[in-house]
Amino acid sequence: MPVTFAATAETFPMDGTFTISRGSRTEARVVTVTARDGGHVGRGECVPYARYGETVESVVAQIESAGPMGHPRDAQAMPAGAARNAVDCALWDLEAKRTGRPVHDLLGLSAPEPVTTAYTLSLDTPGAMRAKAAEHAHRPMLKIKLGGEGDLARLRAVREGAPGAALVVDANEGWTPETYAALAPELLALGVAMVEQPLPAGDDEALRCMDRPLPVCADEACHDRASLDGLRGKYDMINIKLDKTGGLTEALAVRDAARAMGFRVMVGCMVGTSLAMAPALLVAQGAEVVDLDAPLLLAADRDVPLVFEGSTVHPATPALWG
Questions:
Q1: Cβ atoms of 145 and 158 closer than 8 Å
Q2: How far apart are CA 81 and CA 224, in angstroms?
Q3: Phi, psi (rounded to 5 degrees) for 38
Q4: 28-46: b or e for each residue (b if 16 or more CB lie within 10 Å)?
Q5: Are 182 and 171 within 8 A, CB to CB?
Q6: Fewer Cβ within 10 Å of end Cβ, the chain: N or C?
Q7: pLDDT at 148
Q8: What does DSSP say about strands 119-121 and 41-46: parallel, antiparallel, or unpaired?
Q9: What predicted TM-score, i.e. pTM, was given to this entire model?
Q10: C-alpha–C-alpha distance, residues 138 and 120, integer Å
């Protein structure tokens, strides 16, 4: 029986305001895809991202106009991005429901283990970020959103609030080469382990000629396998997000290709629900940095969410995905 798709826009409230260098939000807007073949149902989720020219409406339209598909390999005809991610993940979930085999088994992977995720502190005043860091000082790793004037004061405040936590910094393309060069020694002194996308993607050639005293991770500059060659010599690490790769199928291929090229791997996410994190957990196995904390930032999640124990996130049950 042919597979039919339905794409639905949904909104999930956030637990407060989440701010990065490009703006703030108080809710997560996602697109949920349901794939049906008559007797079985599969689901996937994506987060359309304006940075990549996507809207909820454009992604829904792209999904609704896609041709007939019955297997995740068919989704690869779609362009990489949020729409293909939701379709690809829904088809993998459907295949698991059809066969009675978990997705990791269908892919020839080992059963996923729980992973430890970073916890993200959004951009705010130094005082507010110090207080938030102190609230979450028990977590093994904090990811700090920066990208504006006063970043060093913010980072020092976070370190005061969480003296024992490992820190990674995400500038979301918000720095200039001069800013990064000035901040890098301070980041090292404060024990920062990695900096993510310090310069704008497409305007990051300066990284090739700069000392990188701590690892630099490509986020906005890294999408699918086709983007990897251009990152050589500029970045030490890549951040794999399913909404950028266009789904689980390509994300796994990106991970393997990146490792073969000598990149370290981070697995991250947009601000979505547990349904979006579930397939990413398969990619996150063995990653040097995992950043799949988005459900912890929401005030409401899916009916059958992922289980978090502190910063440890457990693999999904079939009732959620896979």
A1: no
A2: 9
A3: 110, -60
A4: bebbbbbbbbeebebbbbb
A5: no
A6: N
A7: 81
A8: unpaired
A9: 0.96
A10: 13
C-alpha 119: how far from chain center:
12
Q: How far apart are CA 158 and CA 139, in angstroms?
A: 13
In the set 97, 132, 234, 241, the catalytic residue is 241
Q: Is 240 helix (H, G, I), strand (E, B) or coil?
A: strand
Per-position b or e across 275-286, b if 16+ CB within 10 A of its CB:
bbbbbbbbbbbe
Percent of the chain with pLDDT over 90: 89
Catalytic one of 97, 145, 234, 244: 145
The residues, any chain, with a CB within 8 Å of residue 260's CB and separated by 6 or more, are none
Residue 4 identity: T
Angle between helices 151-161 and 177-189 (to 10 degrees): 20
Residue showing tokens 């949904």: 10
145 belongs to the catalytic site: yes
State the burial class of residue 168 (Cβ atoms within 10 Å of its Cβ: 0-12, 13-18, 19+). Answer: buried
User: In this structure, what token pair is assigned to residue 222?
Assistant: 């890294």
> How does pLDDT run across 199-231, given as a tens digit for each residue?
999 899 999 999 888 999 999 999 999 999 999
Is the model's pLDDT at 22 over the cut of 80? no
Long-range contact set of residues 96-99: C-beta below 8 Å, sequence gap at least 24? 96/42, 96/318, 96/322, 97/40, 97/41, 97/42, 97/318, 98/37, 98/40
Active site residue 143: no
Q: Which of 136, 140, 96 is nearest to 117 (CA)?
A: 140
Largest pairwise CA distance in the chain: 61
- Say if residues 87 and 69 touch (Cβ distance below 8 Å): yes
CA proximity to 175, closest of 145, 133, 213? 145
Cα(78)–Cα(46) distance, integer angstroms: 14
